[in-house]
Amino acid sequence: MQNQATEILSPEKSLSSQQQQLVDEAIHFIKLHLHDTQPAVLVISGDAGTGKSVVLSQLFRIIQHERTQSDSKLFNTTNYFLVNHPELLKVYREIAGQNTELRKKDFQRPTTLINQLSKAQAKFDVGVIDEAHLLLSQPDHYNNFYGHNQLLSLLKVAHVLIIVFDEHQVLRFKTYWSKAQLQQLLRPFTQKWLSLDEQFRMQASSSVLNWINDFTQKRILSPIKPNFFDHNYDFQIFDDAEQMRQAIVSRNNQAGLSRVVATTGYPSVLDGGQHYVREGQFKLPWDQYNYTTTPWAEKPETINEVGSIYTCQGFDLNYVGLIIGPPVKLAGDHIHLEVDASLITDPEAFKRRHDMTDPRLIEQATTDLVMNAINVLMKRGVKGLYIFAHDQNLRDQLYRAYLNAKTQS
């Protein structure tokens, strides 16, 4: 029996015409450049929820099927599916176990494959990289990566790479990327850029999606409009975190896969103990390390934990209750949002880099990472988004605007 994550990412899932066209173009690109003297890269961009991972899943199944066909240009090729996200890797390996054309050993974390090929002095033909914005862009001894950039390391050992990239899902300094940085790195190589723009995850209207993008990308508090409230998507603002938790529990009882999540700003130390997110009467521990093969959100007991970007990125929830933590504040003009870096409590994600010394760049990158995390978490919910903000001014402004729009709807 498949869980929801494997169903969503199944290589057997039907595609939209745009997604199918992208798969076809990717196959053509691979075959065209498979024997070039230098690596070739196809970049697939698109917002969260546009089906990038589904496209990669189907693409890789086709590649692995054709490697067994003697009349295909991909016959006997060596190919890998890479993702630098342990929870997502569990899902892909489960999918591989259910499909005779896929092998679990072909699904790897980048560091594992880079170190393995480096030791063997070997290369491979095609690499498909999901969530390429999670690739390390600096050495990381904790993850046993001693190169300078994982994408560059992979380009040295691959003939063709197909990568998914979304600069609005970059979440840590050690994986800090911008579109400009990626373009600069890829400049010496043959490349092609394609994009997806249809929203498949969220049932929200374009008005709600535009509001989220204004909030997370422009850092502007746009008006909440009466047309936010329809039968397809449940958008709510709360002025009490415990009431929001109770609403999420109710939704979880009705529809399943409903969880409370939060941004940085609450005690969070990797010491094996429990650390709590507290807001008034609300008190729940952060998500615990998941040693099982079941994705975090699909474990029933995690209704009593607070999810984070580390457990939720790349996954669908039905309803998400988001706590926006202390670092995010409403500016004095009551329109713009600010980030107070002194209130960030995720030292690993925001550990400074030796190659980033410009204070303005560091400040901009820090703000981007915090707002990107909110972008990722706001776009987890298929059927609804509930929001509570720690900052009193932001909470009051959101709640007043919500009540006013709700009255007019």
Automatic annotation (TrEMBL):
InterPro entries: AAA+_ATPase, P-loop_NTPase, SLFN_3-like_DNA/RNA_helicase. SUPFAM superfamilies: P-loop containing nucleoside triphosphate hydrolases. It comes from the Bacteria. Pfam families: SLFN-g3_helicase. Residues 38-175 form the AAA+ ATPase domain. Coiled coil: none annotated. This is AAA+ ATPase domain-containing protein.
